[in-house]
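Dear colleague,

As promised, here are the two records you asked about, laid out in our usual form so they can be pasted straight into your sheet.

NAME FIELD: protein one
SEQUENCE, THEN STRUCTURE:
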Amino acid sequence: MLLAALLALSLQQPFATEAPSIMGALTQETVEIREDFAGTELVLYGATRGLTIQDEIVVVLRGPEQDLRVMRKTRSFGIWVNGSAREFAAVPSYYAIASSRPLDEIASDEALVRNRIGLDHLLTRPGETPVADMLDYRKAVERAGAREDLYASAPRGVEVLDGGLFRATLALPPSTPVGNYTAEVYLFRDGRPVASRSTSLRVEKAGLERLIYEFAHGLPMLYGLFCVVLAMLAGWAGAAIFARR
């Protein structure tokens, strides 16, 4: 049904004065994380109206936002300690981007910063002048996200099909955070977005993973006490087994 709706949109002939438009939808709206979750792939299908040969498409998937505190390691008397810190507000815990061409060939830095598109512009606010000191902290955030596969970029990850249809594949790693996600699709023309559309995705725990997650977040003190007791019982059982041998 999803593909039929997208195909119907792409087959409609636009009028000469009709504004370009774009739409997209994920093949699944909910991802369940169970005990054996090893990551998964999401496919976003979309269609455009008024697409020209000069137009480009960008797909962005953003995870739940969080505030980050990044600290610089400094060496003091031969020991590495935490130094000065920087705060970053509303940083996506997951961020993946796919585009029909590399971003620097699609739009200017100003347009990308305004829409927070691209890893290089993820922590930059419109009108903000980057300084060398802050750039180091931003690169540290990007490296940490890339190390966990939580930040990803595919410069040619959007495949444009016949009739104005397109497709993009996005990967969710095993460490995918739970929460509400937003998938955004942009149609760029002459370096600026002329149409956009967004859709939502829910990532949630399921099965035993959900019970543990709800226990840990709903009753944190009791959960901590339970873990301590469990660790003591495991230690006692191990000691008893080795004592018999």
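NAME FIELD: protein two
SEQUENCE, THEN STRUCTURE:
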Amino acid sequence: MEVHNVTADAATFTCNAYLALGERTTLVDAGAMDGVVDVIREHTDSLDAVVLTHQHGDHVEQLDAVLDAFDAPLYAYGEHSRRDHAIDDGDDLLVGDETCEVVYTPGHAEDHVSLVSEKSLFSGDVVVHDDGAFDDGSFGRTDYPGQSRERLIESIHTLLERMGDGVEHMYSGHGSVFHGDVREVVERALERAERREPKYPDE
């Protein structure tokens, strides 16, 4: 499956927004980068779906612009005024060329979901490969109101239970795309989260 991070060149803070090309061209998260619509159009003239991992501002700031430009249906777990399809834990979604299972993964956000196929993981912010706090296995922050480290830990356990051993591509909301043994990266993120230490001790 061909996947592009369409916010990779952003000059301001944003999530990674991923364009998965294929049988069902899908944008996972819209990001907060001005001009993201133009970058998407460099790769495709149409979108079959937009899927949200969660609705924090850095993931949805450009959502209206994307939906207006491409008239694509919106799939989201949490309620949204422009949601066309509610998704729930255990649902299957075709993303690009891969069938992904929706895994409900709260903790960083109450409406957070991850998408898992036989080969790929779109993890949003629940786990990332590297983000400035940890390299090679980090986890979403849980120090803001409404967040919970305990729920995040439970979510990472659930993610590991639902992931097969063949997952080798990790597309996370922040940091770098990872290709390799994704399970090992997620397990390291879990170990660090379970220490209950602050993710950013200087803050």
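A couple of things worth noting about protein two: The two ends are 39 Å apart (CA to CA). The domain at 2-194 is CATH 3.60.15.10 (Metallo-beta-lactamase; Chain A).

Best,
R.
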